[in-house]
């Protein structure tokens, strides 16, 4: 059971990383189709998902955080 619980933050962290990548790519696509500025405008959103996802993913793999 504890082995399953160990992988839950890794899976959530991976999901957050992929969601951040998706938001970044959406911003790049909107930059191409409009006048631009979408990647920077979405930076607080995809940047926060990127940071939290990295902390959860790497921290869970290294066994940090209890």
- Largest sheet entry: none
Q: Catalogue the unreliable spans.
A: none
What is the total number of structural domains?
Answer: 1
Give the terminus-to-terminus CA distance. 16 Å
Counting DSSP E segments of at least 2 residues, the number of strands comes to 0
> Roughly how many Å is the radius of gyration?
15 Å
The shape is: elongated
Classify the helix fraction into a percent range: over 70%
Averaged pLDDT: 90
**Oligomer kind:** single chain
Bin the strand percentage: under 5%
Task: Note the run of SSEs as H and E.
Answer: HHH
Number of helices: 3
In terms of structural class, how would the helical and strand content be classed? mainly alpha
Write a brief caption for the model:
The protein is an all-alpha fold. 85% of the residues lie in helices and 0% in strands.
Structure description:
- There is one protein chain.
- By secondary structure, the protein is mostly helical.
- The chain has one domain (2-62).
- Helices cover 85% and strands 0% of the residues.
- The chain contains 3 helices and no strands.
- It has helices at 2-33, 38-41, 43-62.
- The radius of gyration is 15 Å and the shape is elongated.
- The mean pLDDT is 90.
């Amino acid at each position: 059971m504890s082995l399953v619980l160990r992988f839950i933050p890794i899976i959530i962290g991976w999901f957050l990383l992929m969601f951040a990548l998706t938001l970044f790519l959406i911003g790049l696509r909107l930059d191409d189709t409009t006048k631009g500025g979408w990647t920077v405008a979405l930076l607080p959103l995809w940047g926060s998902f990127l940071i939290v996802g990295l902390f959860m993913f790497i921290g869970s793999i290294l066994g940090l955080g209890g």
